[in-house]
Amino acid sequence: MKIVITGGNGLVGRYLSQILHNEKPFILSHKICDIADFFTLKRLLFKIKPEIIFHLAAFTNVDLCESDIVTAFKTNVSGTNNIAILAGMIQTYVIYVSTDFVFSGRKKTPYKETDEPEPLSIYGRTKLEGEQIISKNCDKYCIIRTSRIFGRNGENFASSLPDKLKNKGKIMITKDVISSPTYAKDLAIALSEISKKKFTGTIHFCNSGFCSWYEYGLYICEKLGYDSSYLIPVSIKNFPDSTAKRPCFSVLDTSLFTSYFYKPRSWNEALTEYLMYEYKM
Q1: Strand ranges, E, within the chain
Q2: Residues ≥6 apart with Cβ < 8 Å to 129
Q3: What is the Cα–Cα distance from 47 to 52, expressed in whole angstroms?
Q4: From the first residue on, what is the mean pLDDT of each consecutive set of 10 residues in the chain (281 residues)?
């Protein structure tokens, strides 16, 4: 089976490429082709004629999206539009990874796939537009929303916080932004399973359970033996490093995924595995 993974060198893409190594997926990195370059992308995809495209490439720095709107729309909207149009032309099944940031966070219960999106940030807006483009232009597609991804292939909270704790300085962490951490390895497995069944439509996947960033940090301290007193809980309203508006409660309901596939394991179990076996002290 011919498979293309955009953003294949990223946090999720490297796990996915390992899982699919027997299929020898084509890793479409930015160095090979800018997905916003329609004609270069067309030549590439028409040559490969993939049966499946995992579209993971995105501009994901939430705060930087606010100051660099052009790049955010170029990558997340124009790039996705090119993928969708070309996938439609060659009848390719597309799996598009989206985000909990398409929601406002005003609900008090986990978001279902049928809940109305209302993004608060440029990042959320561009990812929602990407969803709309995929569903409009692709006959065969899956949009999978996820949240708070962590893993070994890139900088993320679970990999960067321990390094900061080693310096024994005060670290401010939000106490009122609630979502579900997702192990990139588990997400990659879910993407692989979705591709096997060719699930069509929108579906949510994240590790089960939810927590604030502060609770997340406390768990990391507990597992690695760090002094948690260095963590200072603050409200998102007083958090100095935040430019973009964030949903305060963006927990995703994964009951649809459970009914079609399996129940995701807890974020605690997944994070413990990452810290014990993948994080390098």
Answers
A1: 3-6, 26-28, 52-55, 93-99, 141-146, 149-150, 171-174, 178-179, 182-183, 201-204, 211-212, 231-234
A2: 76, 77, 80
A3: 14
A4: 93 95 93 94 96 96 94 97 96 97 96 97 98 96 97 83 83 93 98 97 98 95 91 87 89 98 97 88 56
Neighbours of 89 (CB within 10 A): 12
CA end-to-end span of the chain, whole Å? 39
Q: What is the pLDDT of residues 148-167, one digit of tens each?
A: 999 987 778 888 888 888 88
Is residue 8 within 8 Å of residue 25, measured between CB atoms? yes
Q: Could you write out the three-class secondary structure of 186-234?
A: HHHHHHHHHHHHCCCEEEECCCECCEEHHHHHHHHHHHHCCCHHHEEEE
Phi, psi torsion values for 38, nearest 5 degrees: -60, -50
The token pair at 269 is 């179990």
